[in-house]
Amino acid sequence: MVLRRIATATFAVGVCLSACATQPKQARPDLDSFKEINDTYGHQAGDDVLRTIADILKGAVRTSDVVARYGGDEFLLVLPQTSLKGAQEMAERIRIAVQDAKFEMPGGKSAGTTMSIGVAFYDGTETDIDALIVRIDTALYVSKRSGKNHVYS
């Protein structure tokens, strides 16, 4: 719960800072079937995977963008100076990078995972950050219902 509050606050600040941009974009990446990694290899291995995922996300964005962990295996990205097409393309690059990544597990094994990503934009009319997060979540859930490992906006 603390991570969610911190991420939501970070998200709100990112949206406020990007208010000068035209319709800043947000993305909500979520790992698919991450519970299997924790259940099979343990939480330490899961934490290592999350750190690698965070590195992938940070490596994919610009210095003007915000990356925050939302909780569990969920993240939020604020992309203030990115077009919708640019946000979709970035999300697709991230999705492919995660899909192609192999994570070293205990016992010399390796594992992989995939990521579903919802993309939405702040149109300047929402006064409640939670309403915007609901729109991003909706895009994420459509992505997951489409068979996972998708980007939806």
Protein described:
This protein is 50% helix and 22% strand. By secondary structure, it is an alpha+beta fold. It has 5 helices and 7 strands; from the N terminus they run H-E-H-H-E-E-H-E-E-E-H-E. It is elongated and about 50 Å long.
Keywords:
two-stranded antiparallel ribbon; five-stranded mixed beta sheet; alpha+beta
The parts where pLDDT drops under 50 for at least 5 residues are none
Shape: elongated
User: Order of strands across the biggest sheet?
Assistant: 2-3-1-6-7
Q: Profile the largest sheet.
A: 5 strands, mixed
Mean pLDDT: 85
Strand proportion, as a percent range, falls in 15-25%
Query: What is the helix content?
Result: 40-55%
Task: Give a quick precis of the structure.
This protein has helices at 2-17, 34-41, 43-60, 84-100, 129-145; strands spanning 25-32, 66-71, 74-79, 103-104, 110-111, 114-121, 151-152. With 153 residues, it is an alpha+beta fold.
What's the SSE blueprint?
Blueprint: H1 2-17, E1 25-32, H2 34-41, H3 43-60, E2 66-71, E3 74-79, H4 84-100, E4 103-104, E5 110-111, E6 114-121, H5 129-145, E7 151-152
Parallel strand pairs: 6-7
Antiparallel strand pairs: 1-3, 1-6, 2-3, 4-5
Helix pairs in contact: 2-3, 3-4
